[in-house]
Amino acid sequence: MTIEEPEFRRVLGHWPTGVAVVTARAAEGGPRGLTANAITSVSLDPLLVLVCVALEAETHAAIEATGGFAINVLPADAERLARRFADDGRGDKFDGLSHRTEVTGAPILDAALAWLDCRMHGAHEGGDHTIFVGEVLAGDAQDGEPLLFYRGGYGRVVR
């Protein structure tokens, strides 16, 4: 049986994921970012993670140009922030948003539950996305619960 895109999305929607904002500094210096859930650890030696970014995303071009990116894991109360960075039509997604930089110059969101600052280790074609593998240079986390994405909606961890 062949599976089409809508069914593929429906089936994979049954896999709950965390929600993060992947950020980078554009070649001309402006911050870029997008909401993502295609993120995972890859290796402990060296410390590697991967993110999958759509080819047409502004953040894709920024990662390619600068060779660095940050993963900002969102806390449970950050659904509005997730939606803000998921909106491709929004102008400056960073307007009024508190952030800083660490090693690579990629924005670290002050609201992040956890963050990783990464230098490009490799890039691999993945259909309409690029799989960026990053070497983790810095990171931190604080206590709290993560924002989750499941079946097209946001949720929280229930303990």
Ends distance: 38 Å
Mean pLDDT reading: 95
CATH topology: Pnp Oxidase, Chain A
Could you say what the CATH architecture is? Roll
Order of helices and strands: HEEEEEHEHEEEEEE
Largest sheet entry? 7 strands, antiparallel
Query: Helical region count?
Result: 3
Strand content: over 45%
Name the poorly predicted regions: none
If you had to describe this structure to a student in words, what would you say it looks like?
The protein is α+β, with helices and mostly antiparallel strands. It has a single domain, classed as Electron Transport, Fmn-binding Protein, Chain A (Pnp Oxidase, Chain A, Roll). The protein has three helices and twelve strands, in the order αβββββαβαββββββ. The protein has helices spanning 5-12, 58-66, 79-86, and strands spanning 17-18, 20-25, 31-36, 39-44, 47-54, 68-73, 99-101, 107-109, 114-126, 129-141, 147-150, 153-156. Strands 3-2-6-9-10-5-4 form a seven-stranded antiparallel beta sheet. Strands 1-11-12 form a three-stranded antiparallel beta sheet, with no helix packed on it. A two-stranded antiparallel sheet has the order 7-8. The longest helix is centred in the middle third of the chain and has 9 residues, at 58-66. The mean pLDDT is 95.
